[in-house]
Amino acid sequence: GDESGGDDLTSITVGAIPIVDVAPLHLAKEQGFFEDHGLKVEIKNTSGGAEAIPGVNSGSFDFAFGNITSLIIAREKGLPLKVVSNGVTSTGKEGADFGGVVVPEDSSISSARDLAGAKIAVNNLENIGDTTVRNSIREDGGDPSNVEFVEMPFPDMPAALEQGELDAAWVVEPFRTTALDDGTEEVASNFVDADPSLSIASYFTREELIDDNPELIESFTAAMHESLSYADSRPEEVRRILTTYTDMDETLIEEIQLPAFPTEGDRDSAQRIGELMVKDGLIDSKPDTDELFL
Amino acid sequence: MNTMTGTSTGPVPTTDRSKSAARPPAGGRRRRLPNESALLGSVGVAGFLAVCEIVPRLGLFPEKYLPPVSRILAELGQRLLLTSFWNAVADTIIAWALGLAIAFFAAVLLGFVIGSVPVLRAFTASTVEFLRPIPSVALIPLAILVYGVDIGSTLLLVVYAAFWQIYIQVLYGVADVDPVAEQTARSYGLGYWSRLRHVVWPSSLPYVFTGLRLGAAVALILTITAQLTIGSPGLGQQIQVAQSSGALTAVYALVIATGALGVLVNIAVRSLERRVLRWHTSVRGEVAS
Amino acid sequence: MLDVTGVHKVYSGGDREVEAVRDLTFTLPEGELACLVGPSGCGKTTLLKCIAGLMPPTSGQVTLAQRPVAAPPPDMAVVFQEYGRSLFPWLTVRGNIELPLKKKKLTRQRRESLVAEALDAVGLSSSGPSYPWQLSGGMQQRVALARAIAYEPRVLLMDEPFAAVDAQTRADLEDLIRTLWQRFSMTVLFVTHDIDEAVYLGQRVLVLSSAPTVIQDDIAVDLPEERDQLTTRASSRFTELRTRVYEEIQTAKRGAAATSGK
Amino acid sequence: MLDVTGVHKVYSGGDREVEAVRDLTFTLPEGELACLVGPSGCGKTTLLKCIAGLMPPTSGQVTLAQRPVAAPPPDMAVVFQEYGRSLFPWLTVRGNIELPLKKKKLTRQRRESLVAEALDAVGLSSSGPSYPWQLSGGMQQRVALARAIAYEPRVLLMDEPFAAVDAQTRADLEDLIRTLWQRFSMTVLFVTHDIDEAVYLGQRVLVLSSAPTVIQDDIAVDLPEERDQLTTRASSRFTELRTRVYEEIQTAKRGAAATSGK
Amino acid sequence: MTSVSTPGGARTENGATSRTRRTARLVRGAGAQAVRILLLPVLLVLLWWGYTATGSSYYMPTPGVIAGAFAETWLSDQFFVHALPSIGRLLAGFALAAVAGVIAGVALGLSPRARATAEPVLEFCRAIPPPVLVPLLMLLIGVNLQMKLAVIVAGSVWPILLNTIEGVRAVDPVLVDTCRCYRIRGWRWLTTLVLRSASPQMMAGLRQALSIAIILMVISEMFASSSGLGFRIVLAQRQFAIPEMWSGILLLGLLGFALSVVFGRVERSVLHWYEGARAASRGT
Ligand SMILES: Nc1ncnc2c1ncn2[C@@H]1O[C@H](COP(=O)(O)OP(=O)(O)OP(=O)(O)O)[C@@H](O)[C@H]1O
Ligand SMILES: Nc1ncnc2c1ncn2[C@@H]1O[C@H](COP(=O)(O)OP(=O)(O)OP(=O)(O)O)[C@@H](O)[C@H]1O
Ligand SMILES: [Mg+2]
Ligand SMILES: [Mg+2]
């Protein structure tokens, strides 16, 4: 994406996975927040951080949406990325967050502690899912060392749970609701356990762009801030916009638990995630998470 | 040719088709064949659909994860009315066709040159065998880095995957030339290129066609996969949206659309094959009897 | 007894039809050795394939021992004109000859001795372990022949089986065929282009006309049963017969030349 | 001029070696028509392939017009013994004949008339649009021949080119070859198993021995240049020559029988 | 039986001299072989090195770095924990695909009607991308070894199937007639005629399938697993451990090469008649 386009708008491209979390991005576009800040945004679908990060690196995306763990790892590995805006934050309410660990109806597991030794599905291994779930088990007094985590895309988890392939699954919306509707029980709200104001994911860009075009970054951040507060205060707008860029069933959209969209990410929560990552051996030493933020 | 001694061995009277129009059995049988195979194909598809309808209905698997095919087709029917769907189809077809064309021409060109020069083949074999098993998906970050998230990356993946399929077929095809035919061509002074064109190419065509059919499907698969993971527009992306929304019926509907594309491609290749290979044992035997 | 009744065959491939055989009717009593001659392309191979049950005639019927031939009957061996392609390139010469014997319930020893005898009879005793593609054309043809005779068939159909061998070997093989025929009282139909060979070998020579193919003539060969390359061929009756056959073929071809002019 | 000097060929495939040709030396002056006869499997095809530059001899050398033959020389045509496989099944009869002409710089018209003439000469004028696999064996062989003569070569090598055609056609084709040879003064090497044919056609008959193959005899055919199927074959000199060749072949084979006993 | 005597050429037996000659040839052959195998890869590595050494790109480390990562990652018990089980699954999947592909291919190749009936459905299945196929298989089979094998089979069976079909269709009609008139039928007919004459094309399919099986082994481990070679590669990719990712790819390549060497051996013995016939008429 480059500076061009009529009406003196700067054209940019933002990569984002089409899930609930990025509703503010779509709202910003729809509500004209970007245009107000001189930006013409094209949103490109990605399948997650792993594809979005090289996309940002190569300049295909100016900004992208990715979770905090991926960003910390990337940064550790020497990729010059920086967070420019908060993305999505935990609701901080135990049992009413947009992600959690669910177990089948008849399971003997009734709390996070019981997950010790279980087979738990997460969407990506060695990422935010397993670190926070381990943390939940620890916090509840269990031993996470012999939990078997397996990788599985979120959409497949409810079926696998029902088929008895798994003891538990870490799911996010809308699959959390699907799973709960199937009769599963939520036994942990892993985000909340990690930090009640955990910033799970953010919008980020490459350092190079920050140096080259600081005004662009400012405009984007400003627009996103506007949109985040808009979204945070108008859940019905969030639910409405979901019908435009996802294929979610309308009744499902009404049921799901929306995340919180504060404008500012909680940097301490990033610190917290960094600690958990060190504890789980994802990285060697405690990361300087301040470096990650603009 | 008056000075030549014309031998008078009876030229066999051959009846023109026009003259023998009154003789229905042979002509009729021939014309019926493609129709018959279309009919049988429909029977096969119908059977398949019936199974897909009955299995979920019997409750062997939870219906919400494996919806009966009628519901999937209904969903597909709704999508058929959307322009966004057709745009996605067009995007997919363009990326697929472009990727396949590049892979095909590159593989055929390299395959023929390398396959017909034993030294080249000997020296490249190890590298080829090394490169072939590298999955396209592993190249995704590299592709994004070099070509961004647009069609370029998709093409890289598609070409990389489809190339080897066609290339290996071509190598085997080139080796399958009848040595007597090859020697005939050499003794009449046909040069390297005309031998390639007039002898090696036609006799390896059955292999090339199989390569084309394999490559076409792989190219389609990789187009969808690339769109699914990289997020470039097309059917794959729609599948991804549907997947991440938990809209299983929509996923299946899109998968059926993909499969239907595959079937159409195969029909096209098959009919091309019937024309081009009408001399080959595999085709002529079935046409004649 | 082999009965060929009103056999008519039209090939219809692509956009044209070829009438290979118009109307053939003849009977071959059991244990007879008949030779079939006729101009190139007149339909000898086609007829043979119909008789062998490899190809259904367009109309007409072939019966063998009162049973209509729809598939290749048991105890029949065929030596194909395309001898090279009728040998399995992945089997050795021995393997090729042995293959049809495997389904006969024979002891291994018997099988091996049959193979060895057949190879010896065609003068290829040392080529058993070779592959067909390591042999010369004439040798390949003799392997195809050896396969047929090792099979000890009741009906033997041969399509120009000596076309690729030299004159001396050919004479030896002719005698071999007559010996085997007398020994096992097979029914033999032998296609050849060599008129002398047809007369020398057969009890009867069938001459086919050019297309549209019918039986031009059916000549009984009244030479003595015991034949010999030198004396038989030198006899005056032999010369008469070969002249007769030669003339018939000439007529056949002239007829074709006349009709093809139209 | 074609010079064959000390040609020796050993096939070494797999675990055994076959000495196909021991030692052959002879010279064929330009414009000569020589026939090559010899027992089946004695190495005629092998020799022809060496001469055609399709196969390197193990030792010895072939030179054509003073140039060593390493690859097929220009203006040479070969009729292969495996005629069926030497026709391209994806081309029609016409396409097969036309293909070698394409690289000669001829007008389209000239090419077409060459094809038509050649087809006519072998009696297949109406089979142009057929595919080779729609033809009988003899017709296929004639297509291979037509391809060679349409090419108007300077050197023509033929490996049993009339093996699959009937006697009458064979006689016509023999005359055809002689006519063309005289007209274009080609150098012709003709492999055959038919002794009469060798004598009738050639200016010279080379007799090969059985393996280990050497030249058994080299017989000049001193028949008049103008030959005719009836009178020439009836002449006493013809009979003498054919008897001589026959005896040589007999000797060749007896020699082999004797040595093979050891 | 009257006997005709024409010996088919004199055969010279190899003596001691030819044996020493053969050893010499073998030694020279091994050297040439090494050059043939290594020349191009070495050139390519140099090229890669030249390219990456200057304009260092994050995603393209130098060969040295990759080699280091390779040694660290795979020359350890990781190989036994992650790679060996994967290779086992790969071989099992390939074997299943070979059996299934050949059986179905022969059946469909022999019967034009069966082929006409089944082809659209097969083509449909063939066009379904594994990433969407896997969830379905997970549903139908469960998350287990069988599912992984099913993924490998479902992807690699196609080249075998298609090539077998085409090979079976192209059996020489003269050989078919030969078998018919000698009444060679059933199992013997299948093994001596159909399978053998289709074998060159079947081998092409098997060779294709081998490397596809490797690819699908990787893909099968991208879903619902927590170990394996493919899993390690994907994980490394996601963790931006790029040298480790390349080292995994390197291992895949080496695996492919090693398997193709083994396959080449098998192929040479299966197709010796085919190569022999070809070499024979070239007169070498
Ligand atoms: N598959 C086919 N398709 C079309 N026409 C065919 C086919 N096979 C044979 N013919 C035609 O049928 C006629 C008879 O062929 P056939 O092979 O029976 O002749 P033939 O008597 O064996 O000749 P020859 O002595 O040359 O072998 C020929 O005109 C030939 O062109
Ligand atoms: N590819 C090969 N490998 C091994 N031996 C071979 C090969 N080709 C031919 N031979 C052997 O070489 C000898 C000569 O074969 P060639 O084909 O030259 O004979 P020929 O004189 O043409 O016989 P024919 O008259 O039967 O065609 C034979 O003994 C044959 O077995
Ligand atoms: Mg015939
Ligand atoms: Mg020969």
UniProtKB/TrEMBL annotation, chain B:
The keyword Membrane applies. It holds the Pfam family BPD_transp_1. This is ABC-type nitrate/sulfonate/bicarbonate transport system permease component. It is a multi-pass membrane protein. Residues 1-33 are annotated as: Disordered. The keyword Membrane applies. Its main location: membrane. The chain crosses the membrane at residues 38-60, 93-118, 130-149, 155-175, 205-230, 250-269. The lineage of its organism: Bacteria, Bacillati, Actinomycetota, Actinomycetes, Streptosporangiales. Keywords: Cell membrane, Membrane, Transmembrane, Transmembrane helix, Transport. Residues 81-273 form the ABC transmembrane type-1 domain. Gene3D superfamilies: MetI-like. It is found in: Cell membrane. One of its GO terms (cellular component) is plasma membrane. GO terms for biological process: cellular response to sulfur starvation; transmembrane transport. Residues 1-12 have a biased composition (Polar residues). Belongs to the binding-protein-dependent transport system permease family. It comes from Haloactinospora alba.
TrEMBL record, chains C, D:
PANTHER family: ALIPHATIC SULFONATES IMPORT ATP-BINDING PROTEIN SSUB, TAURINE IMPORT ATP-BINDING PROTEIN-RELATED. Keywords: ATP-binding, Nucleotide-binding, Transport. The keyword Flavoprotein does not apply. It comes from Haloactinospora alba. CDD domains: ABC_NrtD_SsuB_transporters. Residues 2-235 form the ABC transporter domain. GO terms for molecular function: ATP binding; ATP hydrolysis activity. InterPro entries: AAA+_ATPase (IPR003593), ABC_transporter-like_ATP-bd (IPR003439), ABC_transporter-like_CS (IPR017871), ABC_transporter_ATP-bind (IPR050166), P-loop_NTPase (IPR027417). This is NitT/TauT family transport system ATP-binding protein.
From TrEMBL, chain E:
Residues 83-267 form the ABC transmembrane type-1 domain. One of its GO terms (biological process) is transmembrane transport. The keyword Cell membrane applies. GO terms for cellular component: plasma membrane. It is a multi-pass membrane protein. The chain crosses the membrane at residues 29-51, 90-111, 132-161, 209-234, 246-266. Residues 1-21 are annotated as: Disordered. It is found in: Cell membrane. The keyword Transmembrane helix applies. It comes from the Bacteria. Keywords: Cell membrane, Membrane, Transmembrane, Transmembrane helix, Transport. InterPro entries: MetI-like, MetI-like_sf. Belongs to the binding-protein-dependent transport system permease family. This is ABC-type nitrate/sulfonate/bicarbonate transport system permease component. It comes from Haloactinospora alba.
